[in-house]
Design a protein that fits this description.
Two copies of one chain form a homodimer.
Chain A (H helix, E strand, L loop, with lengths): L5 H14 L7 H8 L3 H17 L3 E6 L5 E6 L3 H15 L14 H5 L1 H14 L7 E5 L3 H12 L3 E4 L10 E7 L6 E7 L8 E9 L3 H12 L3 E11 L10 E10 L4 E6 L16
Parallel strand pairs in A: 3-4, 3-7, 7-8, 8-9
Antiparallel strand pairs in A: 1-2, 5-6, 9-10
């Protein structure tokens, strides 16, 4: 096996760390791969940590001991979170989104992979310490956000279906009542997609009164799963809500169908703590 | 603005290039960001290209001229593609997947974010030169694969719905007949999610006789869109198929419900050309 120069090592380690967020990589893996001393590897990691940290893209966490190693934790700094929230507010308040009945067209936003990835990165940062083991969402529009978040947390995803499908095998189904329109519905999750007792993070695109999220929480109870966080891209201003603790990136304050105006303000995301202190956010 | 050392520059450039596949970044961006001469930036890019290439993770493409720059193209080498196909074949042939009616349970595989990302990387490599402008899929299980592919190609995603939703605004709907079970269905796509005349790449998880993919191709015709590629995670052995040109990673050759046996073989992926020649595939 060839010996690597430091420059090549830095590129390869950066690639390797970014590829598997939250996955612990033993230092011996790097030492063997590059035929280098552990002290050199540690120096390299110091350089990478410095660049990641000051660039606002995350932290390297070093775990010492026999089962130790290093892992990359995607974290954002406050300016990056503010920038995302700002962009979302601006894009969401485009009156062209207003559909009959005051619904909002969101598919373009959720089809923008760069935007979706950035939302996932911010959620992963906020829920970095949630100790969630699975990200759960409901079809259809929540799926991209759930995968982007799970990707940055190194977790699997389980998708709740609105109607049970033969391809899901045996499922657990609960009936739901939409909090805003009082419509009946059902939510199903394949028995196999969740082990009993796991900790889950719920991610969805839009929350009105919270009937769907409430339904998901109830469904999680059927699996004896513990909900360790709830994140939504946008919620609405409502007095009564079926869910208490959740993180929203934005809040739709008003949709005036006649005047064709939408008012969107930052959600409660920026009231959360735990931002890292980077210096730039390219 | 501080001056960057080469080591820090290499880490930051690697991060930046990996983050936005297929996006052209002007060399002046790097030169200004790092306060470095273009010749130094070019040297750095040479080191990064060498590591990416020999590690089988892709290529840097340099475009010269005033509108020039550099972009990262995720590409896999043949061993990496073979390894993915091999893993998929092994996992898919687990008899525990057999559901009533000979259907296969796939949600665990599609919930595995690392696996999904790798499938997306391989599709992005095969369709690297397809010049597709949008990745199109159908809800629900194709969505993660479509996003993973689009992520690696730097493209947006449009999701075809099986029933039209109010939140999609005005839609184009076509009726479909499943090629295998002759069931009727419909496929809808929001008018706004696709510009007329664009080139699209269709990605889905499972293709039997191809009725759904055929339906998507017909739907694309309604948008005057051009289908520049079709990729599925797995297909089945059938004499008659409604779709001719497509890439499959695996083929389900036989499902014996009584004996509880599944036989899965490599699809036509490895007959495609265009693999890069890396030396290792960590």
């Amino acid at each position: 096996m060839k010996k690597w120069k430091r420059s090549a090592r830095l590129v390869d380690m950066t690639r390797r760390l970014l590829r598997d967020p939250h996955r612990l990589i033993p230092l011996t893996h790097f030492a063997e791969r590059y035929q280098a001393a552990k002290s050199s590897i540690s120096e390299d990691l110091g350089i990478i940590q410095e660049v990641f940290h000051s660039g606002g893209s995350g932290e390297l966490e070093t775990v010492s001991g026999a089962a130790g190693g290093v892992r990359f934790l995607p974290r954002v700094d406050r300016p990056a979170a503010e920038e995302l929230v700002d962009t979302l507010c601006r894009q969401l308040s485009d009156p062209g989104r207003i559909l009959p009945g005051g619904y909002l067209y969101l598919s373009d936003l959720l089809g923008n992979t760069a935007m979706v990835r950035e939302i996932g990165r911010v959620f992963a940062s906020v829920f970095c310490d949630s100790r969630a083991e699975v990200v759960v969402t409901v079809e259809t529009k929540g799926i991209p956000l759930a995968y982007a978040t799970a990707d940055h947390l190194g977790l699997p995803v389980a998708i709740v279906r609105r109607d049970s499908r033969i391809t899901e095998g045996s499922v657990v189904t609960i009936n739901t009542v939409s909090g805003s329109s009082k419509r009946l519905g059902s939510l199903s999750l394949s028995r196999r997609s969740l082990n009993e007792g796991v900790r889950v993070l719920i991610i969805d695109d839009f929350m009105k009164a919270g009937g769907t999220v409430r339904g998901m929480i109830d469904l999680m109870n059927e699996f004896h799963a513990q909900v360790s966080g709830v994140g939504v891209m946008t919620d609405t201003l409502l007095e009564e809500r079926l869910v208490e603790n959740y993180v929203s990136l934005t809040t739709v304050a008003e949709v005036d169908v006649k005047k064709r105006e939408i008012q969107v303000v930052p959600g409660n995301l920026l009231h959360q703590g735990g931002w890292i202190h980077g210096q730039s956010t390219d």
